[in-house]
Amino acid sequence: MTLDAARLTADLIRCASVTPADDGALDVLERVLSQAGFTCSRVDRGGICNLFARWGDKGHARSFGFNGHTDVVPVGDTAAWTVAPFGAEEKDGFLYGRGATDMKSGVAAFVAAAVDLVTGTPPEGAVIITVTGDEEGDALDGTTALLDYMAASGERMSVCLVGEPTCPDRMGEMMKIGRRGSMTAWFTVTGVQGHSAYPHRAKNPLPAMARLMDRLASHELDQGTDHFDASTLAVVTIDTGNTATNVIPAQCRAAVNIRFNDLHSGASLTKWMQGEADRVAEEFGVAVEMKVKISGESFLTPPGALSDLVAAAVEAETGVVPVLSTSGGTSDARFVKDHCPVVEFGLVGRTMHQVDERVEIAQIHQLKAIYSRILRDYFA
Fold it and tell me: Which residues are CB-contacts of 295 (< 8 A; sequence separation ≥ 6)?
């Protein structure tokens, strides 16, 4: 008897695991995996629940890994939902609920595929499953905690598959072989407050901030690479908090977000922005402070054995040849890439993070079939 991935998805959806809450989601997985002979360890850190599970000998030369998450984003306006957000209601061939697409269905599909594999024809090697409760949050104590645990325990994945939803519109059309880097910079320009009728007695931070934001936003970072689109910089806020039209404020704040390809690093972009900030400070006679947070560096798993393995399984089960892409935001693959080669493949993500998030039940079964074929072919 095979494990029903759709039923397991529903069990996970019923857990209201909004980051950082777990609400029993990892307990559900641990019970299923333990019964199938997996050795399970909880790797909780910083108030975040994480699960490490391994079938097979520790330190085996061939270890296929999976990374996923059971935490979800907040529901938002509950009244806007037509179903209970954590009710796992089935309707018209769809399974509804927060996390249905991102990514409880992906976790359930791989767990079901792995359980079927090890309880059917056990592979010559190990299967490692890592599931975190901190992917949608700050990601400080999730996958990083699992990787730290693995390093300390001598655990190793030879390759890893991340189960994020990767297909824009139809099943099988896209897989990820890398991701752009992501960083945010916050700027504070400080001048001298004064009366707007006597601007010569003040140092207005607003023209300086406008000049700085224009220079950053107008600069062409690059024109893209073989596997990446052009890097982008977006000004996301400019604010003074000033409500008086006869006052020149003392400070102005702004922030930019950059998504960058493998031509750059967080450090090189920080150096460039600091140079522009220093230039504006000197031109306008103001002080400019910059703070930076690098959420992840860009990375690429070059096309090869791992991407070929996944693409062949996808084509065999869907009839679609997936595009090898690096588009989209960040994922926990940005941490796994320092451990082993990693690619991402999962469901159609059209409703993720939306009201009435839902997944086509047939696609859950199809995803399990793809994951099953990947595992069989890897250990063949």
Answer: 139, 181, 182, 183, 184, 330
| Same domain as 101, residue 249 | no
Task: Tell me the pLDDT of the chain averaged across its residues.
Answer: 96
Stated pTM of the model: 0.90
Q: Range of 304's domain? A: 5-179+298-379
* Residue 141 and residue 22 share a domain: yes
Number of separate domains in the chain: 2
The mean pLDDT of 15-26, rounded to a whole number, is: 98
pLDDT tier at 1, thresholds 50, 70, 90: low
328, pLDDT greater than 90: no
Please identify every residue annotated as catalytic: 71, 135
Alpha-helical segments (H) within 64-134: 105-120
Contacts of 270 (CB under 8 A, 6+ apart): 183, 185, 292, 294
pLDDT per residue over 222-266, tens digit each?
999 999 999 999 999 999 999 999 999 999 999 999 999 999 999
Alpha-carbon distance of 262 to 252, in angstroms, equals 32
CA dist., res. 63 & res. 143, Å (int) = 18
